[in-house]
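Re: weekly structure request thread

Next one in the queue (981 aa):
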Amino acid sequence: MKDSFLDGTSSTYLEQLQERFNENPESVDKTWASFFRSLEHGVAPEAVAEAYHAFEQGSQISPLSAAAVSNQTIQESQRLLLLVRAYQVNGHFKAKLDPLGLDARSVPLELDPALYGFSDKDLDREFFLGTWNMKGFLSEERPIRTLREVLDRLNDVYCSTIGYEYMHIPIRDQCNWLRERIETAEPIPYSPERKLHMLDRLAWSEMFESFLANKYTAAKRFGLEGCEALIPGMKALIDRSAEAGVESICIGMPHRGRLNVLANVVRKPLAQIFSEFTGTVPMGDHYMGSGDVKYHLGTSYDRPTVSGKRVHLSLLANPSHLEAVDPVMLGKVRAKQYYSDDHARERNMGILLHGDGSFSGQGVVYETLDMSALPDYTVGGTIHLVVNNQVAFTTDPRKSRSSSYCTDVAKALNAPIFHVNGDDVEAVVRTCELASDWRERWKTDVVVDMVCYRRYGHNEIDEPKFTQPLMYQAIQQLENVYLKYQKQLMDEGVASKEQVKRISDNVLAALQVEFEKARDYKPEAKDWLSSYWAGFNSPNQIARIRNTGVPMNFLKEVGYAITRLPEDFKPHKQIKRVYDQRRKMIETGEGIDWAMAEALAFGTLLSEGNHVRLSGQDVERGTFSHRHAVVHDQETGGHYTPLGHVFSGQKKRQFTVSNSPLNEFGVLGFELGYALENPNSLVLWEAQFGDFANGAQVIFDQFLSSGEQKWLRQNGLTVLLPHGYDGQGPEHSSARLERFLQMVDENPYRIPEVDQSKWFGGGHLGAQTQQINQQVANVTTPANYFHLLRRQIHRQFRKPLIVMAPKALLRHPAAKSGLWEFDDLPDDKGIEGVRFKRLIMDESASDRSPNPPEDPSKKRLIFCTGKVYYELAAEREKQGKAGEIAVVRMEQLAPFPFDLVMREMRRYPDADVMWCQEEPLNQGAYAHIAPRLKTCMQALGRAQPHQIPYAGRPAAAATATGYAKVHAQEQAKLLDDALGM
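Done, posted below.
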């Protein structure tokens, strides 16, 4: 055939076809027409012969189609593929994303066909698309298409009301998975029933806002007007996720649209929402907090989905620090996955909503994204929904970010980003469903950027034209999306006017009924804790103080387990020595150091069925090379965690210790969220140095110190902040003890009532701790640290605990404890049970009763806290003043141990009272302690000095000096000031 095709007859036939084409191109087959056009570009007739020969040899492509391949040169094919690639990468810049039509972005040059050598005369030329076409980019699976057809399809796919960013993802399978879904010839259209369902959901979204606006004209709502499509989008996302097996969804979001989400997504009772606009106090029988504004509150409910499945939705409470809730939500989801054994991360997921200004502007967004794939922090992908109203309060985007999109930060973590016009309801739903599918398939983060607008000012009261006059001129001319979608469905014949009116009437009637119910709404006992927290007491329900000691045989059993390494394991020789020393501590019962005491606390809590999680920078080894919770094999590189093998059958990851990413804000927020989920867990965050806690100050201020009072949520998170003056300079000395004490909500001028008959049983102590917002401790012995940690769990309530963790005391020869101090037997003072010592008496004292015998020999009573005690004690011994000076350690600073301080004042009636600290005068505990000491003196009838005598560093702007010699001089002086008589 190859030869015969080139003989005279065939050549004559070819010439005849060419003559017909020259007279009328439409008179020949389109493929031959394309071939003849290509002759002008130098394609040889021999190419046709090659095509027929290939067909005779079994090629599945017809001879004419194969011949058409020759219509384009290799260079043309490459240029066409580059054009397609340009649309895949940059098509979103041309997409119609802005409902206001104010987007002035220029079309990228890369999308101009002329850049690739194509002109208008090429638009109707046919090109061979090959296997690319077979993927479904164009219908009918025809491999030959005109350039015009290709460009039309590229614009339909990549430049409509959805803009896709995914080509930055380096994983080929993920890109192809998305591309196949995006480039499908035609997306499956929504059925009429589905469109009416969207309309109904949109009606609830829009009419809820307008109803509130009419009923509460002067109230701040931070409404969703301008982004009403968020509600049908979110509900579709939740429905799709539930169909994939998700049973629980945690939601974190700022204030914009929060009431609408509460009402229409989470389904908080409307009567309750309306009643909150009247200022009704949500008082329970046992619990009363300060409350918060209605657009900060959270809640949780079970709700059905369209498929009939049920899903649990919880919306976390949050402050006005817009993105601070992000890592908190992640931590809560991770805890849910742990407690439900959801190792595949299929049944619990998180949704985060963001504003455009905060998503690009708040650093915690990146910190949260950075944790998304870390083994001990991942939740299997978070779905991010950005409510992009194109203005941050009053700031234009061009002044609030340096990137093209507010979502560009997510590209750093290879998350796909779907930009969508917020006025195209079906496009919003489609992108939300695609985001759900992505998370279900790949278990990584995905971002939906809903480009919308804010119909009114920032809080409905502001005048937006002050700062955005042109934008609000356009907004005033814009019909709301509910009316637009009504008209669209009527034009399509999907809905009649009667159907549309019926939907609106039904929604309005339901809103009115709930509004009437709100008039007589009576706040019920607050559902302030989830089922895991059943039985835990509120501040008004006094809890019993429990002992924290452990039977000696149990202690030793745990001690041997946590000092045992596998026989074939090859640890570093120094670590082997550490573990041998720890085992000797258990065998002899002597010299328990700080790290061993902590390990014993963890091990005994694990054995009692609790979960222990410790995270922070370098916590596995410990910043000061003291913990070594994870031991590394020096030959294989493998690792072993002794606390993961305390007892037979221990649950996987029941003990979790994890080196965190190098941030504080995000990780502390994560651990706080983790601790929110279940009280039967000791969750700890340790700062590398306590000084670095200031990087997480928002979490301390907004969640940890005030969360219970604002949102009625208890939290037992323990925070370890290495603190102590060792001459290491202003960045490695102070955990800013004064800040945490200043946040304590204790009255310094009121002494809690003491029930003397229950002195040793706890008396008032439980109530004193319950009625305070957080605990602050600075302990000095390993045994007391052991009891402090165990006390966090062995209570009927939970409170945050801030620990000024030691540095020098980790290896201080005097900071050791005997194993008997961990036992649950009566101690050598005859006190029943063993528990944390809030105050440690001077070593010369013995009687621990409320009214001990007086000791007139002491002329000075020094109160102190932390490691300075050991320096005071050593210097006192050196100066021979042990007989005249008593040194008392306050192990717990908040709540203040009024009862024990007064006991010591009774013991030493002739001694002048002094406070000694390492920190400068304007820092440390002095400002907190001084008024409380004076309150104790007043209650005892002792003379009160104008100010409590002070021994410490003078006031300073920096926390510490950076010069070792100066540090030593300052330390010597404060000791002299304390002990000088």
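The longest strand covers residues 912-920. The chain has a mean pLDDT of 87.
Next request, please.
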